[in-house]
Structure formats: C-alpha cells, structure tokens
Amino acid sequence: MGIRNKLFVIFLSTFLVLTLAASGFYYLSFLGSLETYLDERQQAQVERLADHLGLLYQQRGGWQFLVDDPRLLKRLYRLASDRDDDRDSRGDHRHLQLLDANKQRLLGPPAPPKFRSEIPIQVGNGIIGYLTYPDQDAIRDKLDQRFMGRQLRFMGWMLFVGVALSLLVSWLLARHLVAPILALSNHTRDLQEGHYSARLETRRRDELGTLTKQVNQLAQRLDQGQQARQRWFSDIAHELRTPVAILQGELEAISDGIRPLSPEFIKSLEGEVAQLTHLINDLHDLALADGGNLRYQFHRDDLADLLGEVVDSYRNSFAQQTISLETRLPEQAVVDMDPVRIRQLLDNLLQNSLKYTASGGTLSISLTQRPDNWELLIEDSAPGVPDDALPRLFDHLYRVESSRNRRTGGAGLGLAICQRIVEAHGGTIGAEHSPLGGVRIRITLPGEAP
Q: Closest Cα partner for 131 from 159, 171, 103?
C-alpha cells in the first residue's frame, strides 16, 4: 500500500471515529437532557394541578365532584399546562391517580407505590389528598419510540454527511501531503541518474518545504561537485601533459639526432621528471587529505622551535634571490601537532614566497600568542594578487596567471594541501593583502602560552 493510501485510510478512520463519537455523545447528551426536562415539566404541571384541586376541594367540600365527573380531571390537567399546545393533547391525564388523605385511590389507574411520585394536595396546612403519577419510563413508550426514530434518522443523515466530508477531506489531505513527497521522490530519482541541474519549486513553509529546500541545496552541491570534478580531471590532465610533452619532445630530439646527449641535457630531463614526480606526490597527498586518509601523529611540541629550523634552512635560498627575511618568534609555543605535516605546511608556504616574491623584496614571519590559539603570519612583498583571487588561492590547481607560470609556479596544489593540514590540526588558514605589497597568509593553531 502506497503512502497516499495509508494516509487516506488513517485520516478517514480518524474522522469516522470522531464523527461516531460526536454523534453518540450528542445523542446520549440530548436524550438525557430531554428526560430531565420532561420530568421537571411533568412535576411542575402536576403541582399546579394539585393547587387547583385544593381550591376546588375547599369550594365543593370534598372529592365527590371529581368522582361524579372524572372527565373534569382531564380539563383541569390541560388547564395546568404552561403551554397552549399541550391543552389540545389527548389522554395525557390518564396516567394520573387521585388519592384521599389516607392514600386510598379515588380516581385513576393503579400504580405500584415504588414506581410512582406523590404530590400532596393541601388546604391550609392540612393534606387532603395526593396526586400520583408513575415514573416517566413507564408512560413514555410511544413517545420514546417516536423520538428515538427521529433522532436515529437525524444521526443517520449526520453520519452520511460526516462520512462524505471525511472521504473528501481525507483525500484532499492525503493528496496535499503526498504531492511534495512524490515530487521529492521523482527529483531524487533524477539526481540518482545524474541530472543535477533540476530544481524543485515550492512555496511551502512547513517541514516538507524545508526538506524540499534542503534537497535543492543537495542538488546544487552535487552539481557543483560534478563541475569541480570535471575541472579537476581536466586540470590534472593539463598539468601532467606539460612535463610529459616536454620529455617526449626532448627524447624525440635525441632520437632524431637533433640534440646531442649531454650532461646539461640530462639535467634538464631530470628537472622535468622531478617536477612531474612532485606533481604526482602532491596529487597523492591531496587525495589522501580529501578522503581523510592522510596520516597524522599528534603530540605536544614546540612550534616556535620547528618554525625557526625551517626558516633557517631557507635563508640561503632567500639570500640568493636578494629577499630579506624577517622573523618575530617567541621563545616557546607549545602546540598539539604532527611535526612532519607542519614542516610540510611551512615548506609549501616558504617555497611559494620564494617563487613568487620579486627580487629585492621582503618576507616577514611572525608567531603571536592569542587568547585561545597561536597566530602565524607569513607575508611577502610584491607582486600581489587581485581581490577576487584571494578566496580561491586554496582551490585545487588554481593559479593567478599574472604572477605564476607552470615552469616556476608549480601546479597550484601546495596551498590546497596546506589548508587540509591546518584543518586537520583544528586551525584556520586564510589569505589577504599584505601591507608589504604581496600576500599575507594568516594561520591559527590551538595552543597554550609557555
């Protein structure tokens, strides 16, 4: 059974139970109220009749006038009614019984004493007789049958209308609730088949509307992921094609005898192979980092000491490029880290600065204690990058072409790997414009003061 049919059955059953319960409650409540009303009305009418009989008894000097003319009781009973229509009723007085002061029957049918009610007839302070009438259950058979018949017909129409409304409302509710679910099902089927560009339109503000928006966001992410994957494969193929094409051209030149095999030529080939190897290693590391499989071995260590060692290893390289190196490091910076991966992070950042900072420039490195972490700033001088390029520096294979090239700039994977390493350490990394004219890399790592 589909969800629409299940909801239809659930709603219909609920509405039918509520309709039956409401009808039954109405019937029992109305019947009880009617019985109470008739009992109270009967008692009031008999009490008024008792008052009239008391006056007539006093005027006639006894009950003989009723014994001689029993039909007078009927007229008196009709006169005691509080409604005009009851004065035209027939036979309602026949259930009354007139007793004398000793409770001896004078008029009316006999009735068992325990099933009757007695109303005293008084003259002054003395009781001269009684009017009795049986319980209403004993005299209301035909009236009850007619009343119950009318009520049952009314309840039948009520149930018919209730069932019809229940069917209509249940169908509309089931359709209203299932329609977006069916749309979501069809949409997810499209997503499963790879159609990520489709979107669902909805104006609902309930949970189903929220779910529809979330599915649309998922489709957008999948679409972006597919496009990014296509760009990723295209960029990888392009990056691998460049050194491979150079190697192929050089080897063909040797094979054709165009270029002689010399140590300088072999060194050039080694450089291309080294660049290709570096690219493959970066791709491997990035794939492991994206999959969460890049291994880390964390322990508490001194970040300032490690940073000083890495900077010292690059001093000669920066001096050869006539780039001044400035450092501001604390004596100690205790951080929970993987020294191997942090060294890889620092190597990538310093190599970037070495490649892209113009000769005669400056590289400034500072490590500062913040309330909850350590902040590492690596900022270099010109050339800088455009504003729109700053948030994309950490994307896979992204390069700012105005300042980078494939021969000196690498494949654009170093900063992406740096981002994965920093995130694995629970920190943050970002790029911004440097006051020196280049790029400032800001890194925060959780740590404590010495």
A: 103
